[in-house]
Design brief:
20% of the residues lie in helices and 25% in strands. The chain has 343 residues and is α+β, with helices and mostly antiparallel strands. The chain has two domains: 73-156, Hepatocyte Growth Factor (3-Layer(bba) Sandwich), CATH 3.50.4.10; 164-328, Cyclophilin. Keywords: Signal.
Amino acid sequence: MGRRPNDSEHSRFASLVLLLVALFSCLLVYAVVSTLLNPTVNSDDASFESSGSAGGIDVGEKKGECCRGIDNLELWGAAVKWGSDFKFNSSVECCEACKAMCTGNDGPCLCDTWVFCGNKEACGSRFGECWLKKQKDALSPDRQEAGKSVSWTSGIVFGKGEGVVEMETEYGTLHIKLFPDCAPHSVTYILELLNLRHCAGCQIYRAENRGQSWDTQGNHIKDAPYGPPFALIQGTLEALGTPFKKIPIEACPTIRRGSVAWVGSGPEFFISLANHEEWKNSYTVFGSVLPEDMEIAEKIAQLPTKSDIWNNINVSVLQKPIPLVMRRMKKSLGDVDTNVKSE
């Protein structure tokens, strides 16, 4: 996915890098260079560059893979299953046990947090313990301890109607269902943004509609080009004054209409207006816009833009960037359909 150039020094820096790469490559055997330069990866990057940085959601992972947690983290909360009497061989099994208590349609999950001890040496007799817990506030989980000395792995689970946050703009509010089981590090960062009174610097600055290449459902039209335009809106979620740490690559499913994903390791993100199988499984998806709110994203994609070129790719940049704020839900979703799936 293309990134917006930051300043005038970009071209000078790029030229210097190219020169150094050229000199270095002269010292290497062609076979080694060919091995390092993976054609598939380069092709995907070009597609994302051209994309601008790039109803139910299928994250595209194999069964069991979308049960991720964060290592060296112990989450607290009221226990609904005591780990001393509830053991498994893997964190995935522990996660799935929590999910099994979160399948009903009649209210909040009985379990929204799992904590697993999976390091045999560090855990000792507690190896395999799986603690299932319930948070007072699932959007602000209670941390007991974190750091390299912590032997626990923890994760959170959102049930139906839970884990939905607001991306507020002057053109309307996008409700986004988060996927903590597939992108726990990403979701942790989004939850941190909810605690900020504002998100100065957070904005949408690029907008490209579906053009004649994708239909209203996001399906690619046969024989049509894959852009430009590339059917997306793009921006940044880096708040001024708040240090941003690169987010590790997490679950990378096929990009679908409504997918909210990082450009690389963030903080630039995009919301897709179409299904992009051609981008393959290259971008961490941490949420999905609820189907009924996609008309707001479509509205933004129709706003006035100006042409720009990012790394030899034609892009459309908004004439007036749109500030945004990440917020908690102001009211219950009621009967709003939140049945977007993370696997």
